[in-house]
Description:
Elements (H helix, E strand, L loop, with lengths): L1 E5 L3 H10 L3 E4 L17 H13 L3 E6 L8 H14 L3 E4 L2 H10 L5 E3 L8 H11 L3 E3 L6 H10 L4 E8 L12 H4 L3 H4 L8 E6 L2 E6 L2 E6 L34 E3 L4 H6 L4 E4 L6 H20 L8 H9 L6 E2 L9
Parallel strand pairs: 1-2, 1-12, 2-3, 3-4, 4-5, 5-6, 6-7, 7-12, 11-13
Antiparallel strand pairs: 7-11, 8-9, 9-10
Amino acid sequence: MELVCPAGNFPSLRAAVDAGADAVYIGFRDETNARRFPGLNFDPETARRGVAYAHERGRRVFAAINTYAQAGRWPEWEAAVDTAAAVGVDALIVADVAVLDHARRRHPDLPLHLSVQASATNPAALRYYRERFGVRRAVLPRVLSLAQIRRVAGEGDLPLEVFGFGGLCIMAEGRCHLSSYLTGESPNRNGICSPAWAVRWSQTDDTVEARLNDVLIDRYGPGEQAGYPTLCKGRFRVPGHAGGRAFHALEEPTSLNSLACLPELHAAGVAAVKIEGRQRSPAYVARVTAVWRRAIDHLLAAPARFAVSGEWQRTLAGLSEGTQTTLGAYHRSWQ
């Protein structure tokens, strides 16, 4: 079971590799990847340095080119694929069928991984991508339960990668355009759901207000932890609900933590566990990677005796979004 960790910049790549990641995933400084935050991502030279650093230590680097190419701007996605191949990455993580087709034809020896943004959730869909584009691994969306993952793994022959820890979104990956209603930009098309130009913070007396394109998203009181403002995790007043108080009408800030499910994921034949968080700090990446490295090593050494350490859980709880974690869709008692 491979541990795949986020690298939003070179320091995070180095932190992940040094903490025990088997592979890291990166993106370029443009709209071809779904984490286009200012100050993050790689130019070709930095990517080449990162690949060299990882390869010298026996680790791999994947390039996420996982947004959908826009009309009239195809050369940008074509260039991203060619650049990734030129700097020596070990695989591409792709969602768009046009990008998959270009990569398969131009660089037939470069492995392709199907991005979570493709929203492929059943054996027939995965079989199509494998037969049509030669995809060698698929990242499953976070909307599947453990029972569904078992079925997908049991009915197909494509290695699967699942998310283990990180920010959790209620939207089906690859199908969210919610933020575009406020900003005109969405993660699937532009690589970001709350572009920096649209984010505004203001202080009024003892509260802090967060706005997205001048729309009030949340208001934080003294000592309240403030997260990066996204429309789906804002607090709103909904007529007839919560007594008129503002509440998380769509989703509460929380992080997925599937440590407790690790033995079941392993038994299902899952090939890799992925950590979300290319927008996070190198310190965050190092600590999360270290916990998951220890957990996977303990599991592989003695599957029957695996137990989740309280120390691991405390560390991850302190690093979670909203300081709370959930098993998300993995746990559905009615299935």
